[in-house]
Amino acid sequence: MDPKAETLPTDDDLVRRFRLGEEAAFDMLVLRYRKEVYRIAYRITGDHAEADDLAQETFCRAYSALDRFRGESSVRTWLCRIVSNLSLNVVQSARVARRDEVEVEGLAQAGNPHAVAGPVGLDGLIRRERHERVRRAIEDLPRRQKMTLVLRAFEGLQYKEIATIMGCTTGTAKANFFHAVAFLKRELKELL
Amino acid sequence: MTCEQARLGFADVTAGGPADAAVVEHLRICAACAEELRVFRAVLEEASRCAGADIPDPGEAYWDRFLPSVRERVALHRTTADRSRASLRAVAAATLLMVAGSVGALLLSPESAHHGDPLLAAGHRLDEALERMPGLLPEVAGDMLGTDPIGDVTDRQILDSIEEIEPPRGFAQEWSSDDVERMLGQLTAEQVARLKADLATDLG
Question: Would you say the pTM of this structure is higher than 0.90?
Answer without folding.
Answer: no
